[in-house]
């Protein structure tokens, strides 16, 4: 009765005398002990390779017999281990449970994610810019890696952020969602509407540091400053 109740509890009464790791069942502790003692009592009858547990020997034997008992229900693929089948099923479901904590890229297998981190991030020294949210940091990383995971379905142009793709798509759809409340003008981006509103309010926050002339837009001010640039010799 007591051993059955342990199935439903988090109690792990069996402790390893070498590393203090604890186990729910005495048999699991015995198998674990062999990782410290290097005892390998289970031998393959074909190649004599030895193993710490009978289940590991059983999996190994399939290398020789060719047995693949774990069959994918969605395609003809079959596997020697249930864990490999579980990973394979993600290729059908689109599941990507392993994401890089540095750039957010997602992977179906943990091994693929670790390879990515070694190859892409191991020796990277980017800038020291800091962010409050991990999502913002991941988006920022793309400035350095030039990763552009968001692709336009119409022209295949790629973008680093979903918001940039959304704004770009309006070029194709003709959508102009930002309407001026003072006149019929409308714009594809909120910042363009904000700049336009200054033409109604008379606000001129951008001034030339050379002559003091003021402008409603920074782009207009920068174009104006070219007047002050020294003429290039012919």
From TrEMBL:
Its main location: nucleus. It is found in: Nucleus. GO terms for molecular function: DNA-binding transcription factor activity, RNA polymerase II-specific; RNA polymerase II transcription regulatory region sequence-specific DNA binding; zinc ion binding. It comes from the Eukaryota. Keywords: DNA-binding, Metal-binding, Nucleus, Repeat, Transcription, Transcription regulation, Zinc, Zinc-finger. InterPro entries: Znf_C2H2_sf, Znf_C2H2_type. It comes from Cyprideis torosa. Belongs to the krueppel C2H2-type zinc-finger protein family. This is Uncharacterized protein. The keyword Nucleotide-binding does not apply. The keyword Repeat applies. GO terms for cellular component: nucleus. The lineage of its organism: Eukaryota, Metazoa, Ecdysozoa, Arthropoda, Crustacea.
């Amino acid at each position: 009765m007591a051993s059955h109740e342990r199935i439903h509890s988090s109690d792990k009464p069996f402790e390893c005398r070498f590393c203090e790791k604890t186990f729910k069942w005495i048999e699991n502790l015995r198998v674990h002990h062999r990782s410290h003692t290097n005892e390998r009592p289970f031998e393959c009858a074909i190649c004599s390779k030895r193993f710490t547990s009978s289940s590991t020997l059983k999996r190994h034997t399939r290398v020789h017999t060719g047995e693949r008992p774990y069959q994918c229900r969605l395609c003809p693929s079959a596997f020697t281990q249930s864990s490999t089948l579980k990973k394979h099923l993600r290729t059908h479901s689109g599941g990507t449970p392993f994401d890089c904590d540095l750039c957010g890229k997602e992977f179906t297998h943990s091994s693929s994610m670790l390879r990515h981190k070694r190859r892409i991030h191991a020796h990277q020294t980017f800038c020291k810019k800091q962010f409050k949210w991990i999502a913002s940091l991941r988006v920022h990383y793309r400035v350095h890696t030039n990763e552009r995971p968001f692709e336009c379905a119409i022209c295949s142009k790629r973008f680093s952020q979903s918001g940039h793709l959304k704004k770009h798509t309006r070029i194709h759809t003709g959508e102009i969602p930002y309407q001026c409340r003072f006149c019929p003008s409308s714009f594809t981006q909120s910042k363009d509407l904000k700049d336009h509103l200054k033409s109604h309010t008379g606000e001129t926050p951008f001034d030339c540091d050379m002559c003091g002339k003021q402008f409603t837009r920074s782009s207009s001010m920068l174009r104006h400053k070219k007047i002050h640039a020294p003429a290039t010799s012919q």
